[in-house]
Structure prediction request, 167 residues.
Amino acid sequence: MTERNDFIEELDKKIQEITETSSIEEAEEGNRSSALFTTTQEGGGISLFETAFFDLWDDYPLLEILVTPQFEVKEEAIPEIEKLATNLNFTIPIGHLGVQHEAKRMYYRYMFTPDMEKSAEELAEQTVEIYKRMAMIFGSIVDICERLASGESTFEEEEAKNENLKQ
Prediction:
């Protein structure tokens, strides 16, 4: 059985190979997560990738990967991002999109239960593969997201230009 700290160390090494920066932060007291990684996507810091362990139940860890783009969503653009999220959540293969209203940020989130019976290296490789898939998926829509978030366009305008958004 893999120890959480061994997995965290292995994941940090692998993340450093594919990102510009990576850091491990210990969770604050009272926080349900036991470790947090913050990484910046290669190629200009488009998004933060955060990974956190949640200890909700004994022997049943949850691992969350949260992608947060570095642009703010204007208040009046939140409904447009919500339309996009509702549309794409039916088609993206992993995770889901949403909006943090208070922070005016959109997010792309995926949670899973890692198989702690695997080796630390296997778990880290699996997690990095998920990172890569999420980066590819989010990278394919980030321009649309940014136009909607800035108020530059509406969901309907983007849908008219992009066949992939039509259901």
Q: What stands out?
A: The chain has a mean pLDDT of 82.
